[in-house]
Every structure is written in C-alpha cells, then in structure tokens.
Amino acid sequence: MRAVAANMDQAAGQTRAQASKARRRLQLATPGFKQLSASRGFSTSVQDLLSPTDTFRERHLGPSPADVVKMCEVIGVKSIDELIDQTIPAQVRRHDTLVLPDGKLGEAGSLKMIKEILSKNIQAKNFIGMGYHGTHTPGVILRNMLENPGWYTTYSPYQPEISQGRLESLINFQTLVCELTGMEVANSSLLDEGSAGAEAMAMIARTVNSKSKNQFFISDQVHPQSIDLMKVRAKYFGIELIIGDHATTDFASMTKLCGAMVQYPDTSGRLVDYSAMGEALHGNGAHFVMSADPLALVVAKPPSEFGVDVVVGSFQRFGVPMWFGGPSAAFMACSKKQVRRMPGRLIGESIDRLGNPVYRLALQTREQHIRLDKATSNVCTAQVLLANMSSMYAIYNRSDGLKRIAKRVHGLSQLFAQQAGKAGITVTNSEAFFDTVAMDVSPKSAKSVVEMLQGKGINLRAVNDTLLTASFDETHLEADMHALVEALKAAGVGGGSPTAAANIAVTGELPAQFARTGEFLQQKIFNSIHSETEMMRYMHTLQLKDLALDVSMISLGSCTMKLNSVSSLTPCSWPEVANMHPFAPESQTAGYRELLESLEKYLISCTGFDACSLQPTSGASGEYAGLLVIRKYLESKGQGHRNVCIIPRSAHGTNPASAAMCDMEIKWIDDSTGMDLEEFKALCVEYKDRLAALMVTYPSTRAFFEDNIQEICAAVHENGGQVYMDGANMNAQLGLTSPGMIGADVCHLNLHKTFSIPHGGGGPGMGPICVRGHLAPHLPNHCLVPPSSGGKAAESAGAVSAAPWGSAGIACIPWMYCTMLGNVGITDTAKYAILNANYMKARMTGHYPIHPTNKHNRCSHEFIMDFSEIRRKTGIVEEDVSKRLQDYGFHAPTMSWPVPHSLMIEPTESEDRGELDRFCDAMIMIRAEIKKIEDGEWSAEENPLKYAPHIQTEVAGTNWTYPYTREEAAFPAPWTLKRGKFWPQCARVDNQLGDRKLKLRLDE
C-alpha cells in the first residue's frame, strides 16, 4: 500500500509539474494570460472573484489559450509577442496605452452604460421632415432581417451561387424603384439622398462631356443639405453650379447647362408641375434630374411623366428608422441608355451552368475595383441591408397597403392645413402638397415659434424668417395633429379670421393634376404576401440561400469579416437611438452627442491623430473626405495648384477613383515586391512642385508591414505633399502601431471592418477620417447642424454626407466594441488577427506557393496564395478553387487582387482554431484534387473544380455522368456531413450572358 501511495504521490507530482509547465507555456504564449487565469480556474483575488463574468474579450477572440500555444508551435515562435516582433518593424511599434475604457464592465455593464448615455436624448414629436421621417419598422422585418445574422453578416454578393437570397431581394428593390419613378432601370442603393444627387450631377457631366456645357442648375427648393453637398462635389468636377428659382429661370436661353435638378415635392412641401422645365432643358441638350420622395410617388404623378432623365432619393421612410441621420438606402433610376454610366451596383438576371435562371451583379466593369480612376464613381459599400428592409416593407404592405399609408399621411396633412386655416394661420402651399404644410407666421419670427414649440416637445422647421413647415408621416396620429394646432395657437400664430386653407377637404386624394393614374407594382411579389407568417417564411427562405458568418468563416482578404456581436448591435433598435431626427435641436440630442464625441476620442487614440470626423458613410466616402481635406489645406497655404497624387499599383480601386473625384492627377508606382524607396523618392522629386498626396495602405495590400514606411512618408513631406493612409488594413495595427506612428497625416477607418459594424451584404458602413492637428480646421462640416468636431465654417472642406454625423445610428456598434474590449482587448484583436493569418499561412506552406512577405517570412493579418503555376500546368484557375470551396461549405477568399491569379485570405481574430483548420483542410484537399488533374486521373475539363459548385437537385438527380462520385462532388469533407451541408443555390453562373442580355427588374 505504501508503494502504491508513493507511486500515486510521484504521479501527482509529475502531473503538477506538467500542469505548471503547461501554465508557464500558456503564460508565455498568450497575451492577457494573467487576466484570463481567474476565469480558467486559477487562484483569484476577491476583486477578481467579484468582477463581471461576461467580459467580452474571450467571447470575441477565437483561439483559446491552449490553441495559441499549438498555433505558435506551428508558426515556429514561442509566443504571440515574438510573432508580433517579427511582423511589425520595431521603429513603428507603439508602446503607449490606448485611451480607451479598461474593458472590465462586461457586456451587460457596457449596455447599462450606453443606455444611461442615450437616455439623455429627448424624443420629441417630429414634424421637421426634409427627407427624414418617422416610420413603423414592421416587427417581422426588425427581428428577421435587421437583427438576423443570416442577413447582416453577409458580404457583397460577388459569389452569386451563395448569394441568391439577397440578390433576389435587391432586384425586388430595383423593381420597386422603377415602378415608383416610372424609369427603366435603377441601382441597388446609394449612400444617402444628397450624395445620390451629387452622383447624378457627375454622371450627367460625364455624359455630356463638353467644356462648353459645364453649368448645372439646382433649384433653391431642393433640400439645403443636398445643395450643400453638391456644392462640394461640383468644385473639383469643373462644374459651375447655379442655384436659383426654377420658376423664374429661362432654361431655354441657358445654352451652357448640362443639367438641372429639382425636388419633388419641394423642400417647402409644394407639388410643382415640372413638365415645361423638362421640355426647355431637353430643347437645350440638357438633362433633367429630380430628387423625389418615394412615399409621395405612391400616389403622385411619377417623375417620368415630367420628362425627367434621372431620379434620386431616399427610401428611409419605407420602414427604416431615422437613426439621427442614417443609415438608409438612397437610390438612382434612369433610362437604359444611361445605365453604363450609372454609379452603384446593379443586380441582373442570367443563367447558371444547368440553364436555370439566376441573379448576379451586372456590369461590374463600370465599378472602381475594375476601372480604377476611370470608374463611374468611387462607390463601393452602399446600403444593401437597408435597401432590403425597404423592399421587404413594400412587399409586406403590398401595393394597396402602400396606397393606404400614403393617403393617410396626406389626409393628416390635409386635416392639419384645414384646422390651421380655421385658426387663422396662412398656409402658403394649400393648392398642392403631399405631407408638408408651409405656414407664414409673420409678424412672428419663425425661429421664435420653433423654439417655443420645442419647449412643448414638438419640432417644426423654420424655412426662413417667417415660413414654418410641418411634415407628417405614418407614425403621427390625429391627436398629434390637433396638439400641433393648439401649440401654434398658444404661440400666438394665427388668431384672425379663417384663411383659405380652412376650405380644404380631407379626402386623402391629391389634385388631379398631380395624382398618379394607372397601376403600378403589379409584380406578384408585391401583391402576394399579407400575413406575418408568410412574410417570416419568405425572408427565411431567402436567408437560407446565402452563406453568412452564421454558417462558416468568410476569409475575404482586405474585408475583415469578424464577429458582429449581439451586444454591440442591441442598442440600434432602441427608440432613443432609432427615432432621433438629425436636425433635432441640440438640447434634445445630448445623449447622441456624448456617444459620438467619446467614439471620436477612441478613434483618435487608435490612430495617434488629433481630430476626427464621423461624417463619411463608407470607406470610399472617407477617402474622398480625406483628400478634400488635403486639397483644402493646400489651398489655405496658397498651394492649390498641387494636384498630383501618387498611388501604388496594389491600391484598392477606391483610391484612384476617389483621387479622380478630387481632380487629382494620378501617378502610379510599382510595388509588386514592396515600395522601392529610391524610386519613390525620385518620383516625389520629379513632381515636387505639384505633389499633393500619397495614398498608401498599411500594412500593404500585399500583406506585410513595410520597413521603410516612415522614410516613404518623410519623402512626401519633404516635397510638399501630405500622406493619406487607407485604413482598410487597420485591424492589424490596433494598439501595435498607428497611422500617426508611420508618419501619415490623415486616414479613414472602415468601422464596418475594423470596429465590428456588420457588412450587411454591401452596407451600411461608416468611414470616419482622423487627421493631424494642422488638418483639423478643414474637416467636413454641415450647413444645418455643425458637428462639434467639424471644421471651421470658412475653412472646412465642406459636407460629404447629407447628415451631420453620417450614419450616426450605427455608431453605437463601434462604441460598444471599444468599451467592451477596452485598451488591452483592442490590442489583442490585432495580435490574434496576425496570429490566425500566420497560422493558416504556415499550414498552407508546402501545398500552395505563398506570395513573398517580410524578411522574417511573416505576413500581416492576411496572406496571398499564388495560383500562376497551377494555372499554367493544369488550367485550373483561382475562380475554380473559389467555386469548389462552396462545396466544402466556405465562401471564397478575395480573388485575383492585389496580385493577378491569386487568392488573398484574411481569417480575422474571431475564428477559432477548429474553423481555421477546417478551411485549411479544405484547401489542402482541393490541392489533392488538383494533383489528380496533374496526374491525368481527371481531365482538365472534366473534374469537380471545373463543375463546381454542385447543387442539391443535380446531386440528387437520376442523371450523373461525371468522372467522380456524387460523394466526391457534394460531400468532399467529413464536416459537410457532421456539421450539416450548406448547399449553393445554383450552379456556376454565366456572367458574360448576364451582361449581354441585360435584365435589371422583374416583369411579373
């Protein structure tokens, strides 16, 4: 017994020694091990014992501490810190602590904190309008789309075989736009109404393409935020903007006009017959643009009947909250002959390999990722999730339900106008209006009346010194209307004899001159669903067709498809977030302002800069804003002639497209093996008198941190230019280095990548810019509600978005992300992103050629696999591998960019080792399949890669003629059985046919 006891003691001692050794290895390899140890069962202090147990760091980071040890062994390092030292040059490493929360609150504590902040908002009854309206988001859409990861975690539908659900929803949206506007084609969303107007103006200027016709007219009855934004866009397009009264302008004599734009209904609420204006413009060879309210178009004469060429607008009031300015889906519609110049993504029909009808992205050759500086626009991320919400809103309400909503809104405004008239208030647009009633309150000051009513929880708009407007929406009740009348009377408005408006009949019908005639939205989808059960099942059916993060990892390089946590997204649906009007008075928006200002401080700390603007609504919008700031700064120094922008060949397509929008002359530099410093310096010296900017991504798009980045930035500064850093790869920098450390002057951040806002299938996004102090006076501003962080009025580069803080409604997501992770956790996200990428790269090495990285053979947060040799030997191309991955249950990595014939893989920090291994195993098994082609077992034409993906009906069908089994085709890996098979919804899509036979809307 003593011997047994002694053996047991010896074994226990060995076990304790092994556990101690394992613990030391964990501590060495794993950042934050000390903080983790308490939750792993090690000894704790009382403080640790009683701290929140729902801290976010462990829930966000994929690999466990034990995984980290194994992964470091595979990579060939002892710890993550050693890996980081070998990845990021020492000279750009930051060693300070980020000025962020400590991350100890936990998820529940962070939600409590943000609730306390946002409770400072005051939810008034809004009648402000101006393109932002209260709306009812149907609960079935809120729960099953907006709050559903199957919808919000998808990426842009570049892989149509696993994107048929949202592609169908988007072609529904395009059809909805065409039906309401009367136009032939529409895109699948733009960023906001103001920028859509600017895009229309630019499209028309390109179409006319004549220096003798470089004037563009904007009616002074267009919403002021749109006019403000278009002023900025016109400046660098060489467009002379004329703002005036369309009613008194002689368009027939304006021979230099390329186009003109009006609002319908106009910003003062009037419905105007623009037919004569359209005829005059066309007679002069000019184009006619209209910014239209889609709810008004449900009952009002469509723009096409006024001879309009291009229609833009916002679908916010189709079921999308105001969100303090955004996000919501804007749109553009035009004729077929202009479609190839139209910005934004287009969804069209085609067929797959088996002849089945399918949807796909059409005419991609117009877009920035292909045409670069010759693209129709720099638009990349748009507002897909919101466009889908609006199309579902139309489907759920059906065409007859939309009519009831529009007529009810109009009826409320009629009743208000009538009651106002009876109270002696002068209504100035009583002849024809839809939802907005304008009132002359003289001799009262409109501003003073607005302020008096704000004290009673009612918001109106003061158009000028004596004109007020009240806009009605579907959330208003009859009681709200009566309360508004009484409040106006109490403020001393009216009080005399009844005015003409007292005779208005409440019918819900527009005057015959403006009433829509004929049927619209007769397609089956807009008239077949009425119950919540049917609606739920329709959305679920579409969701099941798409591969999102709820299915498997999406390893798209340079796209950062990380976790979008539920806790981060939860506040978006709260009333105090969703129901705030962007032009509400400052006294009502204290909570939003506090949240936004603290988020700006977090981003400033992460970038190492001095100031921040949250206004840009996408990464491309951020690029444009950053370059505008540089141009404005140079002009302020008398250096406005500087217009040369140096861009590496590996840059994102948005870079040259944005530079072109700022009228910059692009000079390309080769960086295929990294930026050659001497060559770069010589280029800077060559253009030293005109050099404006360098646009550079760091770490580079070729997946490593360049050692000479500080010297590159210094060379730009020495020759009079500024450095713009593209923040697409910021996920590898957080807490480890910064744009400030490398010597940049301005950068944008993709909050829909780095800071966890979901991609939504192609939007929404946020692309704020951070700048050094000398550029701060030139940050974007706003004509109606200047943000506290905006540039000085006279020095600002101007507005880049219609709302003061852009997509403010989703700013709570990055705020929660930063608060829950804290300064240590944020830094660990970058470390784990680099760890995961290097682990996958190590596993792939020996199976595929890997594009060169740094001197230590370390990649950044992504890596590039080269298929040139495989392509040459077998005819198998990167697209074949990408489609074959769908059979294994995975989304394709980024194809053929920035290196031709390649795949770029970015796993992010959120994926655990098991998922990383499954993806690597899939790629290794695919390599074995390629080997069978090399060995002649399968021909170059008849093999599972060329026929991929394989769909359920084909695999289950009676006819199988392929030289491989059904199991090899559809169940090539064990997890496709154990975890459940994700079936692509169609076989490989014929892209060429889809562009030759263009069909962009539903017929029936």
From TrEMBL:
EC number: 1.4.4.2
Domain (Glycine dehydrogenase C-terminal) ranges: 830-950
Substrates-to-products reaction catalysed: N(6)-[(R)-lipoyl]-L-lysyl-[glycine-cleavage complex H protein] + glycine + H(+) = N(6)-[(R)-S(8)-aminomethyldihydrolipoyl]-L-lysyl-[glycine-cleavage complex H protein] + CO2
Enzyme class name: oxidoreductase
N6-(pyridoxal phosphate)lysine: residues carrying this PTM: K753
GO molecular-function term, one example from the UniProt record: glycine dehydrogenase (decarboxylating) activity
Glycine cleavage system P-protein N-terminal domain location: 58-487
GO cellular component: glycine cleavage complex; mitochondrion
Cross-referenced SUPFAM superfamilies: PLP-dependent transferases (SSF53383)
Pfam families (UniProt xref): GcvP2_C, GDC-P
A GO biological-process term: glycine decarboxylation via glycine cleavage system
Subcellular compartments: Mitochondrion
Spans annotated as Disordered: 1-24
Cofactor: pyridoxal 5'-phosphate
InterPro entries: GcvP, GDC-P_C, GDC-P_N, GDC_P, PyrdxlP-dep_Trfase, PyrdxlP-dep_Trfase_major, PyrdxlP-dep_Trfase_small
UniProt keywords, alphabetically: Mitochondrion, Oxidoreductase, Pyridoxal phosphate, Transit peptide
Job of this protein: The glycine cleavage system catalyzes the degradation of glycine.
Quaternary organization: The glycine cleavage system is composed of four proteins: P, T, L and H.
UniProt similarity note: Belongs to the GcvP family.
Listed NCBIfam families: gcvP
Protein name: Glycine cleavage system P protein
Native source organism of the sequence: Polarella glacialis (Dinoflagellate)
